[in-house]
Structures are given as structure tokens and as C-alpha cells.
């Protein structure tokens, strides 16, 4: 399994995931449409100066007199913010917040933002999925246009995000995200100076609990704000806590016993409050526009689904949406018409005075609704590819139009939300004319949206190594859609869905023995989904060892011989079981299907490296790095491989660059120091090793620091480093420990 293979390199991977800065995006992926123009604290003012006076006068004329110009009415009157802070609330149902009417909620921080800002009472996510929705918030585009239509897809090249717009205008840009679904590799990192997706990748691989808690994400944000508060900045903080499994820390766990989902929301809200307090402490709260938005809701079993992703019902599509910024308040405003998450970006740009930047976006500014008077409902297109790609069932697409919702499915659905908010009565058969009209309207919209899709990039397929982690987030089963095959309606697959949800719940509880037979049933129910076998194999690997897992994967391959995903899995399993030759053979089959399969390249390189075939290994690391040049993991391994081949100078160059890119990474710093020492450069060695132990004490860093001090004749410091080393030489070889003891004795004489 990849998780096993990777866990052997746990330290390197963990350290590699820790650094705070985002590396430069791969070549060709970052193309800001606007040239940098330098910092602009008050964006409109520079345009009013000097030679631009006439143009500015024309602009004022347009703003004041033109039809459709902004109308200010009672309620909050927004001023131009200096900074923008976007807080996304993963998996948060609007109707589970106090300000959206839930009496039992404990969400004082979000309620306070709503009470002094604008709350949209009916906001729709474009998809009940994390990445598609976040990409829509960032780009103002529907998933059909931005390309990230399911978790694991890539944001299409050529789409422009808020971060890129802010960066091009000289703002500091930073993101602190909490889950793999929004990992920078999917494209959301473009435009961010800092994109911190350093949540524990190991945990994501290991358990089914791949979230970074709000406390950790907040701490990173807060540290960054210490440096960046002077602004102007655009910052995104993503809280993931309400996602499954629901396990808030104490005291929320106890206080919300029996309704832990609400406990997760309450816990998250505490950190929304902490973010607000941090802004206040820096004196920038009043100059910062805060946007709080959900990405999708959660089924909670209200209709069919416990989680989200498969269906397009209200509980997974209705999200909180709150704006709070300069000039707003103290009077709250509630805007009641239906709006969409694609409207967030155009609204933010409008509030900054940059509405021209929203050209090409599919959402529209909501600023004219800030007064709170009810406006017309905006049509919302909603979709999910998740059932198609994850289960081989039909995808769903729908249109919310005023009080109506139409869902295109093998068995179409029509609901009148005004009268039937629980969507309990399908009116499709009873209202054929309305259904036909909405269907035609939806199809027209889809054609229009597809035409707006960027022409210079087609979304890439999800990569198997990402699917592993997505699976751990509850996004399972990327079954290949069989072209032409009639896919079943997800509504008719409730039995299988129950199995999947049961297996998932058992795994969340750690009850793998009970999950195994359920996975067996799933294999029988969806035998053409590679992930059915993979999920079973993952459980078997825990229960019965790698051989049992390999047999299951081989069984899957007998039915699906060309499945790259299954082959890659099997290759990992062999590698983890120490079957080097089988691993190499299997990974060669993967690479024959897909020469740029990153996991196959990485595992093959690792196996060759471990079996002493260093030159071949290095060549593969190079191929992998060509695909993923920013990978800290690959860079560390490649440098180690160069070092062990005696190419110390080249290794040092890589470590030094890593330490530069990730100044908070102790491992890169430590390796740079050790390599300098081997090169005889004690000065730089001491500098890097001192920095490494300051970041994170480690036995190898103390030991090499001691040798470096000794070489420089700094005996007292060498003694101190050796004492620290000997106080906790965990993981060190007895020979090293003995050498250190001898040196300590010698130096103390
Ligand atoms: Zn989400």
C-alpha cells in the first residue's frame, strides 16, 4: 500500500509537508492575466491623481449616473476595505448556525459577523463537493467552466482566481487550508504567496481522519498575520472540522454529546472568533472585509445521504454566506433572494472597486443587495459528478429557479421548494409543462456555461495517488464511467449506498473486522469499480497482512486487467511487503499505461534505491521531479541519493534551495548542515545545524553540530551538543551513541 511505503519515509515526508511557504508553481501553470502593479492600499485613489483626472471624472460619472449604478439604501453601507479575509466553513449547513435560525446552535462568532454585516439567507453551492465549490468561490465560475468538477480534478489552466487578481495588484496573499481536497496540487494555490496545506499527510494516509483541526490552522494564520497585518492582504482560512467523522475535542465532545456535528461547528466557530480577535488585536478588523462562506452542507440522513456528494438536495447545497466589512453595521441586513457561491468573487471585487476584474466571471456582484431589501432569486445551476466517477452511477445536474428545483437524472425530479422545503414530493410527473420548461432552461444554461469554459486547458484526470487520500476523506470509488453504458440513478442505489456508508462508519470507529465483510458485499455489488477492491484490500492489509491485500487486488485485476489504479496499488503492496521484483514488474506495467504515473515512478525509484541500484533510482527521481518539481518529498530523496553517490555539492544545492523555500523546515536545514560538514565547510554547517535544532531538536542534528563545533575548536559548545544528543538518542545507531560518549569523555578531560 502506498500508505505503508510512505510510512517508511515518515520523517522525511512529515518534515517535507511541514514548511509554510508554497513553492513556485510548475512551469506553465501560473499566468496572471494582469501585470503586477505594485501595492495599492486604496485602489481607486491612484487613478484619481494627476493625468488621470479626466478619466476619473468619467468613472465617477459612470458610477453615479449610469443606469444600474449602485443604490445605497438603509442598512450597511460598505466602504472600501484595505484587506480581505475569506473564511470557508467546510461541510457547514446554513441551517445549523444560530444566525440562520438554529436555536440550539452555539455559533456566537459567526452570529456576530452576521449581526454587523450582511447575511444571505439562501446561498447555493454549485456542487456538494469541497474542491468544486471552493474553486467556484475563488474564480466566480461554475465547475463546468473552471474544470474542477469533482474532488481530485485540477482547476483548468487559464482560469483566474481571486488570489491571482490580488497578487497582481500587489497584495500579500496567503491561504491556510485544512484538508487534502484543497491541496495546492489541484490548482487553488495559484496566486498565493503562502499556501499552507501542511496538514499531516501521514494521518490522511493512515486513518480516515484527514483533517487539520481549526486550532492548528488558526495558529498558522495567526503567525502569518503577525508579519502581514500591515497589509494590504488577501487571506483565505479554511476550516474543515464539521466534515466526517464528527469528533470535536473536549469540552465540545461532552457538551454536544448526541449531536457531535453541531459540536464540530461550535468548535470551529470558536476559531472564527479567534480569527476576528486576531484582526482586532492588530488593529485591522475595521479595515478588513471578512467573507464567511460554507462550501456545501451535509445530509445528516435527512433524506438519503449521511454525508454529501451524491445528491442535490437542499441540505447539502444550502450554505452560510456572510459579508462583514468596513462601513457596515451596526444594523444587520439579511438578503433573502437566492444567490450563489459563484457570486462571492464578483462581490469582493466590486467592494474593492475593481468590478472590471470580474469580467468573464459567471457570478455577479451582490453589493446591490447589501441593503437587505429582497431581490429576485438568481438561477443556480447545481451538479455532481461524484456518483458517476466514484460509483459508476449517473451524474446529476439541476437548476434552482425561484421556488422550483429541477434535477436531471435517469428519473428526473421536480420540487416546489417554497411549499415543500424538505423535497418530499416529486412533482415531475404531475407538472410536465413546468418540468419541460425548467429542463430546457437548464440545458440552455449548461450550453452557455460550457461555452465559457477556458479553451486553453482541459481539466486533468484525478491521479491515483491523490485518490488514496481522497478515499480517506470519504470520497471513494473512482470507477471509470463506461461510455455509452446507461448508468443507474443514484436514488435507486440506496442499498449499495447504505453498505458504503456502513463500511465507512465502521472504519471511522476503527472496527475493521466488521468493515471487511461489508467491503466484500460492496465488491459483489460494484464489481467493476477498482476502488471496491482497493477499499477491501486496505482493510485486509490491516487485519490479515499484505499478502491478503495483494490477493484481493489480483482478484480485481483479473476482472479489470487494465486498471492503472489497481496496478499501482498492487505495486505498492508488493513494495511494502518487500517483494522488490514483483513491485518493479507491476510498476513497469503501470508506467507502460501511463509513463508519468507519479506514484509508480516514486515507488520504483525507492525500490531501486533500497536495492542499491542508485543510478537507475536517481534517473527515476529526476523523471518524477520533472512532473512534480515542487515536491519536497522527491527533492529530499533525490538529494539524499546524490549525497550517497558522493555528489555532495549537488545535494547541498538542493538542500539549500529547500531550506530557502521552506525556512521553517528543520529537515532541509539539518541535511544542508550535515552535507556542508561533509564538504568540510564547518561555518555554514554550524549555522544550518543551529537553525535546525532551534526549529526542532533532533539527535542527528545535535551529533553533527557537536562534530562541527569540535572541528572549530569550540569544545564547550561541542560538549553541550553531545549532552543534548545523549539525553535522547532515539533512533540512533549504537555505534553513533558510543562514538558520542567517547567524544564527550575526551572533550571533558
Ligand atoms: Zn467540503
List the helices and strands and how they pair.
Elements: H1 2-7, H2 10-17, H3 45-48, H4 53-65, E1 83-89, H5 108-115, E2 118-124, H6 130-139, H7 143-146, H8 162-168, E3 172-176, E4 194-196, H9 201-206, H10 214-228, E5 233-239, H11 252-255, H12 260-281, E6 288-294, H13 314-317, E7 318-319, E8 321-324, E9 333-340, H14 344-352, E10 380-384, H15 386-391, E11 396-401, E12 404-408, E13 413-416, H16 432-451, H17 464-472, H18 494-508, H19 512-525, H20 530-544, H21 546-559, H22 564-576, H23 580-593, H24 598-610, H25 614-627, H26 632-644, H27 648-661, H28 666-678, H29 682-695, H30 699-711, H31 715-727, H32 734-748
Helix pairs in contact: 2-26, 10-12, 18-19, 19-20, 20-21, 21-22, 22-23, 22-24, 23-24, 24-25, 25-26, 26-27, 27-28, 28-29, 28-30, 29-30, 30-31, 31-32
Bound molecules: zinc ion.
Zinc ion (ZN) binds next to loops.
Describe the 3D structure.
This protein is of the alpha/beta class and 749 residues long. Helices cover 48% and strands 9% of the residues. The strands form two sheets. Strands 1, 2, 3, 4, 5, 6, 7, 8 and 9 form a nine-stranded mixed beta sheet that branches. A four-stranded antiparallel beta sheet has the order 10-11-12-13. Strand 11 and strand 12 (404-408) form a beta hairpin. The chain is globular, with a radius of gyration of 27 Å. Residues 1-75, 200-209, 455-463 and 465-484 have low confidence and may be disordered. Bound molecules: zinc ion. Residues 90-91, 130, 295-296 line the site of zinc ion.
Amino acid at each position: 500500500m502506498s500508505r505503508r511505503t510512505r510510512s517508511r519515509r515518515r520523517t522525511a515526508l512529515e518534515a517535507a509537508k511541514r514548511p509554510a511557504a508554497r513553492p513556485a508553481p510548475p512551469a506553465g501553470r501560473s499566468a496572471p492575466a494582469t501585470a503586477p502593479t505594485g501595492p495599492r492600499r486604496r485602489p481607486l485613489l491612484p487613478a484619481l491623481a494627476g493625468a488621470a483626472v479626466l478619466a476619473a471624472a468619467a468613472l465617477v460619472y459612470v458610477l453615479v449616473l449610469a443606469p444600474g449604478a449602485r443604490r445605497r439604501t438603509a442598512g450597511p453601507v460598505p466602504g472600501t476595505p484595505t484587506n480581505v479575509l475569506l473564511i470557508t466553513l467546510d461541510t457547514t449547513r446554513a441551517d445549523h448556525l444560530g444566525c440562520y435560525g438554529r436555536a440550539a446552535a452555539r455559533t456566537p462568532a459567526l452570529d456576530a459577523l452576521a449581526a454587523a454585516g450582511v447575511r444571505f439567507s439562501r446561498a447555493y453551492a454549485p456542487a456538494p463537493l469541497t474542491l468544486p465549490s471552493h474553486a467556484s468561490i475563488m474564480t466566480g465560475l461554475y465547475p463546468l467552466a473552471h474544470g474542477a468538477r469533482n474532488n481530485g480534478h485540477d482547476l483548468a489552466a487559464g482560469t483566474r482566481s481571486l488570489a491571482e487578481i490580488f497578487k497582481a495588484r500587489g497584495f500579500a496573499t496567503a491561504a491556510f487550508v485544512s484538508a487534502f481536497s484543497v491541496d495546492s496540487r489541484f490548482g487553488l494555490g495559484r496566486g498565493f504567496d503562502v499556501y499552507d496545506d501542511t496538514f499531516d499527510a501521514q494521518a490522511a494516509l493512515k486513518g480516515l481522519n484527514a483533517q487539520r483541526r481549526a486550532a492548528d490552522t488558526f495558529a498558522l494564520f495567526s503567525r502569518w498575520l503577525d508579519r502581514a497585518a500591515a497589509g494590504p492582504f488577501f487571506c483565505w482560512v479554511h476550516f474543515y472540522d464539521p466534515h466526517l467523522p464528527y469528533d470535536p475535542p473536549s469540552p465540545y465532545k461532552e457538551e454536544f454529546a448526541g449531536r457531535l456535528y453541531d459540536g464540530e461547528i461550535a468548535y470551529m466557530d470558536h476559531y472564527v472568533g479567534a480569527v476576528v480577535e486576531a484582526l482586532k488585536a492588530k488593529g485591522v478588523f475595521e479595515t478588513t472585509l471578512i467573507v464567511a462562506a460554507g462550501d456545501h452542507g451535509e445530509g445528516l440522513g435527512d433524506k438519503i445521504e449521511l454525508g454529501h456528494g451524491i445528491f442535490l438536495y437542499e441540505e447539502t447545497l444550502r450554505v452560510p454566506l456572510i459579508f462583514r466589512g468596513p462601513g457596515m453595521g451596526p444594523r444587520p441586513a439579511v438578503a433573502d433572494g437566492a444567490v450563489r457561491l459563484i457570486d462571492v468573487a464578483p462581490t469582493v471585487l466590486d467592494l474593492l472597486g475593481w468590478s472590471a476584474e470580474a469580467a468573464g466571471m459567471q457570478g455577479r456582484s451582490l453589493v446591490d443587495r447589501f441593503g437587505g431589501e429582497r431581490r429576485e432569486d438568481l438561477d443556480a445551476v447545481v451538479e455532481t459528478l461524484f456518483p458517476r466517477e466514484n460509483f459508476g452511477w449517473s451524474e446529476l445536474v439541476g437548476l434552482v429557479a425561484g421556488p422550483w428545483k429541477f434535477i436531471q437524472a435517469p428519473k428526473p425530479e421536480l420540487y416546489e421548494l417554497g411549499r415543500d422545503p424538505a423535497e418530499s414530493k416529486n412533482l415531475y410527473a404531475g407538472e410536465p409543462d413546468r418540468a419541460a420548461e425548467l429542463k430546457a432552461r437548464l440545458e440552455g444554461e449548461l450550453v452557455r456555461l460550457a461555452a465559457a469554459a477556458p479553451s486553453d486547458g482541459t481539466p486533468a484526470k484525478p491521479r491515483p495517488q491523490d485518490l488514496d487520500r481522497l478515499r480517506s476523506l470519504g470520497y471513494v470509488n473512482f470507477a471509470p464511467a463506461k461510455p455509452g453504458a446507461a448508468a443507474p440513478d443514484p436514488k435507486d442505489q440506496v442499498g449499495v449506498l447504505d453498505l458504503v456508508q456502513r463500511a465507512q462508519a465502521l472504519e471511522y470507529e476503527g472496527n475493521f473486522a466488521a468493515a471487511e465483510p461489508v467491503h466484500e458485499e460492496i465488491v459483489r455489488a460494484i464489481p467493476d469499480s477498482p476502488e471496491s477492491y482497493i477499499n477491501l484490500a486496505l482493510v485486509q492489509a490491516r487485519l490479515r497482512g499484505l499478502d491478503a491485500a495483494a490477493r484481493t487486488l489480483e482478484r480485481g485485476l483479473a476482472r479489470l486487467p487494465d486498471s492503472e489504479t489497481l496496478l499501482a496499488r498492487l505495486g505498492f503492496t508488493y513494495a511494502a511487503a518487500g517483494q522488490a521484483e514483483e513491485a518493479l514488474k507491476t510498476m513497469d506495467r503501470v508506467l507502460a499505461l501511463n509513463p508519468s504515473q507519479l506514484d509508480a515512478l516514486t515507488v520504483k525509484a525507492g525500490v531501486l534505491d533500497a536495492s542499491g541500484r542508485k543510478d537507475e533510482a536517481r534517473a527515476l527521481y529526476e523523471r518524477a521531479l520533472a512532473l512534480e518539481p515542487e515536491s519536497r518529498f522527491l527533492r529530499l530523496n533525490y538529494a539524499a541519493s546524490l549525497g550517497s553517490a558522493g555528489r555532495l555539492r549537488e545535494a547541498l544545492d538542493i538542500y539549500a534551495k529547500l531550506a530557502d523555500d521552506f525556512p521553517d523546515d528543520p529537515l532541509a536545514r539539518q541535511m544542508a548542515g550535515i552535507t556542508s560538514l561533509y564538504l568540510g565547510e564547518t561555518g555554514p554547517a554550524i549555522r544550518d545545524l543551529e537553525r535546525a535544532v532551534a526549529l526542532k531538536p533532533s539527535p542527528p542534528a545535535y551529533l553533527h553540530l557537536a562534530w562541527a563545533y569540535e572541528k572549530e575548536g569550540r569544545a564547550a559548545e561541542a560538549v553541550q551538543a553531545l549532552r543534548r544528543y545523549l539525553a535522547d538518542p532515539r533512533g540512533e545507531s549504537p555505534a553513533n551513541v558510543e562514538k558520542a560518549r567517547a567524544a564527550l569523555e575526551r572533550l571533558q578531560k
